[in-house]
Structure formats: structure tokens, C-alpha cells
Write a structure and sequence with these properties.
The protein is an alpha+beta fold and 154 residues long. It has 3 helices and 9 strands. The chain has one domain: Multidrug-efflux Transporter 1 Regulator Bmrr, Chain A, CATH 3.20.80.10. A hairpin with a 5-residue loop joins strand 3 and strand 4. The longest helix has 14 residues. The chain is globular. The chain starts with a strand and ends with a strand.
């Protein structure tokens, strides 16, 4: 697993929100949520890259989190009914690409790399950002994604 440091500029995204527990996510609720988003993403006009689905995780509760699936959009994009706009600040990320069934192991390895290389986690609300190919089917495909974890320098 190759890890890189990547700087991303601030951007806006339009998408849908899921709020639930870690247990619900582990049982497959996120997969169902992802599949539903794939069926509605064409409603988002002016997407910067409609084949790059962005997952944003905000761990703001003790036993759960808020998760968005979205597309990056140009400023002024209309927001379809049932969706919302998300502002993602500029950030430095520890980033890796992963393909396989044990995504949690990739996260564990990335957090270990961050600690071993003396970086610290960024203190913002954004826990991690994921990028999926637009053709990814969360129900039938082996996960293939880029994982980005916000960090601060040494």
C-alpha cells in the first residue's frame, strides 16, 4: 500500500446525507445508501467530474456518524430536491488507493502510517474523504477507492 501526501483545494459538492451508527454501516446500510445515490446522481448538473463519487465522513456523535455521497460541483449549481450542498475546506491528506474486501484494514494501515511518520490528525469535523469510480456497484463489486485522511504536518 503506497501512501502519499496530497493537498486538496476547497471545493463544493452536492449530494445526499446518511446518519447512522457504526453497527448500521457494518450491516450494509451504507451499501444500500450508495446504490440509491448511483440511481440519483444524474440529477446533479454541472458536476466537475461525474465519474468521481465523493464520500465524506463526519464522526460527530459517540456511536455513529454522518456520511455524504456527492459529486464536486461548480459554484452556483442548482441543488436537486432531497440533496444538499457540502463545503469541503482545503486540506492536506494522507492518501492511499485500495482495492479489496477488507477496507477497514486499509484504514488501520493508513492511520498507522500517519502515526509512524509523526503526522497528526487534523482537528476539523471531516474524518475522511473517499473517492469511488462512478461505475462502482457497492452491492456486487469489490471495493476500489482512494482513501484520504486529513492531517497536519510534523
Amino acid at each position: 500500500m503506497e501512501t502519499k501526501i496530497v493537498n486538496k483545494e476547497a471545493f463544493k459538492a452536492v449530494g445526499v446525507k446518511w446518519i447512522g451508527t457504526f453497527e448500521q454501516a457494518a450491516k450494509g446500510d451504507i451499501k444500500d445508501f450508495h446504490k440509491k445515490f448511483l440511481n440519483s446522481k444524474n440529477q446533479i448538473k454541472s458536476a466537475v467530474n461525474p465519474e468521481n463519487i465523493i464520500g465524506l465522513s463526519y464522526h460527530i456523535t459517540d456511536n455513529g456518524f454522518t456520511y455524504y455521497l456527492a459529486l464536486e460541483v461548480e459554484d452556483g449549481t442548482a441543488i436537486p430536491e432531497g440533496m444538499e450542498i457540502i463545503s469541503v475546506p482545503s486540506c492536506t491528506f494522507a492518501t492511499t488507493e485500495y482495492k479489496g474486501a477488507a477496507v477497514h484494514e486499509a484504514y488501520t494501515a493508513l492511520y498507522t502510517w500517519i502515526k509512524q511518520n509523526r503526522y497528526t490528525l487534523s482537528q476539523g469535523d471531516l474524518e475522511h474523504l473517499e473517492e469511488y469510480p462512478g461505475s462502482f456497484d457497492p452491492v456486487t463489486d469489490v471495493p476500489k477507492l482512494k482513501i484520504h485522511i486529513p492531517i497536519k504536518g510534523i
